């Protein structure tokens, strides 16, 4: 679910402008999972563009407080959301922690890094949602540490059905600045892609694990 339509369209346009999102239906990318994909999203690029990172920071700060109430702590998911999560926490005047994919193998063996007290309300900041599996590991780690997870706010989601089901099963509210539907609508309107390419991108989104490019 997006925070609102205007934010979704503006965020999609900014991500396309800086090539944080690349669309290439004819020459697809290969994800780490092995999936073939006509889209690649690297939201880390946002941090290199001050005006855009400030926009993302401000939209997150405004919508997080409106939708979830002001939490006690902002948590970022390592590594992609650490940078933007810190910016959001600073803007909201809140403490920040980040969550590793798994506990450290040495030292204190922390998975949640930073000062977190049991019972504190936490909103998680994430950069990208695909299946949701890695993001929900962060939710589990924070809950294990005693946090009350109010929800998750992400920059972008592919909108896969499996992700929606995973978040529903985990009882986690997910809200995003933009999503796949708004991205494609804008990409066609601004002529980043043709209508034929849009059809390919929509076909991929229905079954990304089995999709192959048609030659």
TrEMBL record:
Tell me a GO biological process for this protein: pyrimidine nucleobase biosynthetic process
Q: Which reaction does it catalyse?
A: orotidine 5'-phosphate + diphosphate = orotate + 5-phospho-alpha-D-ribose 1-diphosphate
Query: Domain Phosphoribosyltransferase spans what residues?
Result: 56-156
The UniProt record lists the keyword Magnesium: yes
The entry marks the following residues as binding 5-phospho-alpha-D-ribose 1-diphosphate, namely: 100, 104, 106, 126-134
- Top enzyme class of this protein? transferase
Q: PANTHER family given for it? A: OROTATE PHOSPHORIBOSYLTRANSFERASE (PTHR19278), URIDINE 5'-MONOPHOSPHATE SYNTHASE (PTHR19278:SF9)
Family per UniProt? Answer: Belongs to the purine/pyrimidine phosphoribosyltransferase family. PyrE subfamily.
What name does UniProt use for this protein? Orotate phosphoribosyltransferase
Q: Which organism is it from?
A: Flavobacterium soyangense
């Amino acid at each position: 679910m997006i925070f609102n339509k205007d934010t979704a369209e503006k965020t999609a346009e900014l991500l396309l402008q800086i090539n944080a999102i690349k669309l290439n239906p004819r020459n697809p990318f290969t994800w780490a999972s092995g999936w073939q994909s006509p889209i690649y999203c690297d939201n880390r690029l946002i941090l290199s563009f001050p005006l855009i990172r400030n926009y993302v920071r401000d939209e997150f700060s405004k919508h997080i407080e409106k939708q979830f109430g002001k939490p006690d702590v902002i948590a970022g998911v390592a590594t992609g959301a650490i940078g933007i999560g810190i910016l959001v926490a600073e803007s909201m005047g809140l403490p920040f922690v980040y969550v590793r994919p798994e506990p450290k193998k040495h030292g204190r063996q922390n998975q949640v890094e930073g000062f977190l007290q049991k019972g504190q309300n936490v909103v998680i900041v994430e950069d990208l949602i695909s299946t949701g599996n890695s993001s929900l590991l962060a939710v589990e780690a924070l809950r294990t540490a005693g946090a009350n997870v109010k929800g998750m706010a992400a920059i972008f989601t592919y909108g896969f059905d499996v992700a929606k089901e995973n978040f529903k099963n985990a009882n986690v509210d997910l809200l995003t600045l933009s999503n796949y539907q708004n991205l494609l609508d804008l990409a066609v309107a601004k002529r980043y892609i043709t209508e034929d390419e849009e059809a390919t991108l929509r076909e991929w989104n229905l079954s990304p694990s089995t999709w192959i490019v048609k030659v």
